[in-house]
Write a structure and sequence with these properties.
Layout (H helix, E strand, L loop, with lengths): L16 E6 H13 L6 E6 L2 H8 L11 E5 L2 H4 L8 H10 L1 H8 L4 E7 L4 H15 L3 E8 L6 H15 L4 E6 H8 L5 H24 L8 H8 L3 E10 L4 H10 L14 E8 L5 H14 L5 E8 L7 E8 L4 H5 L21 H7 L39 H4 L37 H7 L11
Parallel strand pairs: 1-2, 1-4, 2-3, 4-5, 5-6, 6-7, 8-9
Antiparallel strand pairs: 7-10, 8-10
Helix pairs in contact: 1-2, 1-6, 1-9, 4-6, 5-6, 6-7, 8-9, 11-12
């Protein structure tokens, strides 16, 4: 259900929003934001590397004006300003050493964005500490981080995954940007500098899309309390963006944001909160606003908190830009990774499967069924291919009892009964012989008929 629209004409919100770039990747993101006019927020660079901090605070000569960036060097005693050496434990100790400095920097803040590139030492280790401090201070804490590119190595990826898990426990919402998908978008021939710049651009877009709703004047009032309702205590989150021009720009931009590759693993129907930012010029119509809301409502669950705000930017001519942030969701890929239960094999007294499932059943057979795929000869016995597989001791082939697969229909491969084009006959339960036959060569025809052993197991006399 769409909420009442309040037309407003007021100055910027009084909410204090800060962005802390942690480590080298976070510092690069802060520099990118200050060079691309992210308004209404204050910036802090936190690092253990003195040289990297100097670069973070340097101004871009091409930029007309830049906001001030506060510098915070962490862990003077721990690292002596030389960095964490890709060791998250060092980054963690450095942040804990300067806890008082972090508290002082965050005092009076309503919302903080913690941005970093996961996989390094300072960002991976210090970001969870900073997030915990912010949460303890009652600050709405949102982390926007990147996973490493595949070419950065498996070790860095492992460090990043462990850091993301720890960070998720300390923030209200965690937006993770998968750099691998950015690489797929750019193509393998893209320059390396372009790849990292694109990652910074996505980080910048996530922060800008949320901060603009709160800080910049618009026609639809979505205030800080609304944003807090969508993002507080929500856990995993992702974002997508879309832009378009022309008569169908509202629909195309919204669908582009929803189907954005960065949201490819997300089902919006599982989101508990959806925050939407529409940025356009003064020519946006009520019909276009309603169109965006209608499309979002189609994808959102009935219980989701949906907040849609607009920002008017005089620099936008015919373009309309939509940012969608989905919070409180579960990744679809995590569902796909859940262990799949073994395929159930119907007992032989049940109706046979459809014939067209035969080839599929062959492909799905686990490796311990391989020996069943050949006729059993006199010298063979039924042995499981994997000793660790849960099974009972198989009976000798010529023991005076029903065949092994008739006793254990739950382990008989589905295609065994398909090897004969004869109607299936029910096997009556037969009493076990007092002792196994010691001379299979004298196995009588009468006993074979009495036990109703399938023809392909019978051994005729020469």
């Amino acid at each position: 259900m769409l909420e009442t629209v309040d037309l407003v004409d007021h100055p910027h919100s009084g909410a204090v929003i800060k962005v802390i770039g942690v480590g080298g990747g976070g510092g690069n993101a802060v520099r990118y934001m200050t060079n691309h006019n992210v308004d209404g927020v204050e910036f802090i660079c936190a690092n253990t590397d003195s040289q990297a901090l100097q670069q973070c605070g340097s101004a871009d000569p091409k930029a007309a004006s830049q906001p001030k960036v506060d510098i915070m060097r962490m862990g003077n005693n721990t690292t002596q300003g030389l960095g964490a050496g890709t060791n998250p434990e060092v980054g963690k100790l450095a942040a804990m050493e300067d806890k008082d400095k972090i508290v002082s920097a965050l005092k009076g803040t309503d919302m903080v964005f913690i941005t970093t590139g996961m996989g390094g030492g300072t960002g991976t280790g210090a970001a969870p500490v900073i997030a915990s401090i912010a949460k303890e201070m009652g600050i709405l804490t949102v982390a926007v981080v990147t996973r490493p590119f595949p070419f950065e190595g498996k070790r860095r990826m492992k460090i990043a995954e462990e850091g993301i898990k720890e960070l998720a426990e300390s923030v209200d919402s965690l937006i993770t940007i998968p750099n691998e998908k950015l690489l797929n978008l750019l193509g393998k021939d893209a320059p390396l500098t372009q790849a990292f710049a694109k990652a910074d651009d996505v980080l910048c877009g996530a922060v800008r899309g949320i901060a603009d709703i709160i800080k910049r004047p618009g026609m639809v009032n979505v205030d800080f309390a609304d944003v807090k309702a969508v993002m507080s205590e929500m856990g995993m989150a992702l974002m997508g963006t879309g832009s378009s021009t022309g008569s169908n720009r509202a629909r195309e931009a919204t669908e582009g944001a929803i189907h954005n590759p960065l949201l490819a693993d997300v089902d919006l129907r599982g989101a508990r909160g959806i925050l939407v930012n529409i940025t356009s010029g003064t020519d946006i119509t009520l019909g276009e606003y309603s169109e965006v809301g209608r499309i979002i409502e189609e994808f959102a669950s009935d219980d989701a908190i949906v907040k849609i705000g607009t920002v008017i930017d005089q620099n936008y001519r015919d373009e309309l830009h939509v940012t969608v942030v989905a919070t409180g969701l579960e990744m679809a890929s995590s569902v796909a990774k859940r262990p799949v239960a073994p395929a159930h094999v119907e007992p032989q007294h049940a109706p046979s499967r459809q014939a067209n499932s035969y080839e599929q059943s062959r492909r799905e057979q686990p490796s311990h069924h391989v020996e069943y795929q050949q006729p059993i000869t006199r010298s063979q016995s039924v042995e499981p291919a994997h000793p660790g597989f849960d099974h009972r001791e198989p009976a000798p082939v010529y023991e005076a009892q029903a065949p092994y697969y008739d006793q254990r229909p739950d382990q008989a491969p589905a295609h065994v009964q398909m090897t004969r084009q004869e109607p299936h006959r029910q096997v009556a339960a037969q009493p076990r012989a007092s002792r196994p036959l010691t001379n299979p060569g004298n196995f009588s025809q009468e006993v074979q008929e009495e036990l109703d052993i399938p023809a392909f197991l019978r051994h005729r006399r020469n």
